[in-house]
Amino acid sequence: MTQQPRRPTRALIAAACMAVLAGAAVAEPHLPAPVTDADYLPTNQGAAQLGRLLFSDPILSGNRNISCTGCHHPRFATADGASLGLGEGSIGLGPARRADPANPPEARIPRNAPALFNLGAREFRVMFHDGRVEADPAFPGGVRTPLGEDMPTGLDGVLAAQAMFPVTSADEMAGHMRENDVAKAVRMGRIAGPGGAWALIAARVAAVPEYAAMAAGVWPAIGTTRDLRFVDIANAMAAFMAVEWRSDDSPFDAHLRAQVPLTGPAADGMALFYGDGGCAACHSGPFQTDHDFHAMGVPQIGPGKKLAFERHSRDLGRQGVTGRAEDAYRFRTPSLRNVVLTGPWGHDGAYADLATFLRGHSGAEDAYDRAQAVLPVLEGASDWAALDDPAELAAIRAASDRDGGPKALNAAQIDALIAFLGALSDPVALAGRMGVPDVVPSGLPPGG
User: Fold this and answer.
1) N or C: which end of the chain has fewer CB within 10 A?
2) Nearest to residue 130, comparing CAs of 282, 303, 296, 332?
3) Which residues pair with 331 in a beta bridge?
4) Which helix (H) or strand (E) element contains residue 99?
5) Contact in structure between 212 and 227 (CB atoms under 8 Å)
6) What dihedral angle (degrees, nearest 10) is formed by the CA atoms of 23, 27, 31, 36?
7) pLDDT per residue over 411-442, tens digit each?
């Protein structure tokens, strides 16, 4: 977790440790207010039902062979259970996902699949690990995206804007230039507008009678005065995600609502989290995130984030959006809801064990163990280039030190924190409210 720069004194650390070890009673820390319905944006149930089907339908991918569920499955707490997943050109789910021998992926997805809990809450105004989609009234539709002024209007918010982009990624869903019309449009820079990738996908969906009828039921103008747009598809999927994975029914929420108090190690961990541990300096508010960007010093694995003509394996995070040197290696503070189940952890999923991640973040781990990486087999992948580069390791550490460096935590404190983080798990959200459909209107195999 990202921590505040101020280091506690040795006396404070010792006192917190002794309280955890002895199971001593701790004073109630300053906690956020309980989550209420007012914290969420309203959703259209009909749109959510449509979005549920589209989310699991491979029709949205260039080769009609992968859906959003492939990387965001409830079986893996809305992620995929891998450090860095395989998208287009792979088959299977989660860590067992593998390359399709008939058309293998060209590269791993460069960042860990983020969890999708509570993205329909009003305070979630920044999307992706680097924040490249963000609420901004200066841009069309009030959202800043990589498309800038060319971004279509009519989106319901940042969550819908986020849903627009995975289908345009060659490695995630679009495929590659010679494989299909969507990939060709993407490669030629035609994303929005007539003949663009989004229009091509929307036309596919509109040609399915059940989808056309459902969309017209939600937006009556469709089929009469206008055609189905990909903006509508994105709005529907955003409504689905907001409803399906609202998460505010955990033991921690029961504690905030004065229903059932947290006790034992979870209570000790909560006191540390909101007290001397300093975790709440960045993991603040009801969803444990300040929605800001911090350099955490996570080891870089995988291909890194780069442009097509670049050959490095680093990931500069927020700097890639802002262009500011001070933003190098900063990544968005993740929400911690259901966090004990959303691993591997880190922007690149470098840690498969949460305790090891916390030890690494607190400076208690001397060296990164590459066995922590959960990487589905991909022939020819270069996964360790950044780790084998002393200059890159030094740059990552320098950025972490600049943002405050690691927070000193001992084993007992880490155990207490994990007990508290477990109290953020919500069985309703983890199970999902509507579930993964067994069939989808396109007739394609759902999921994958």
Assistant:
1) C
2) 332
3) 294
4) strand 98-99
5) no
6) 80
7) 999 999 999 999 999 999 999 999 999 999 99
71 by DSSP, 3-state: which?
coil
What is the residue-wise DSSP string for 81-145?
A: SSSS---TTEESSGGG-EE-TTS--SS--SSPPPP-TTTTBTT--EESTT--EEE-TTSGGGEE-
Query: Position of tokens 């995206």?
Result: 145
Name every residue whose Cβ is closer than 8 Å to that of residue 241 and which is 6 or more positions away in sequence.
51, 55, 116, 119, 120, 159, 163
Q: Give me the count of residues in the chain.
A: 448
Q: Which domains does the chain have, with CATH numbers?
A: 10-30+249-425 (1.10.760.10), 40-79+114-246 (1.10.760.10)
Q: Please name the amino acid found at residue 173.
A: M
Tokens of 105: 């992926």
Token digits for 210?
A: 């059940």
Residue 398 reports pLDDT greater than 50: yes
pLDDT tens-place string over residues 257-313: 999 999 999 999 999 999 999 999 999 999 999 999 999 999 999 999 988 778 899
Torsion of CA 42, 47, 52, 58, to 10 degrees: -130
Contact in structure between 354 and 418 (CB atoms under 8 Å) = yes
How far apart (Å, rounded) are the C-alpha atoms in residues 178 and 186? Answer: 11
In the block, residue with structure tokens 């305070």: 123
State yes or no: pLDDT of 16 exceeds 90.
no
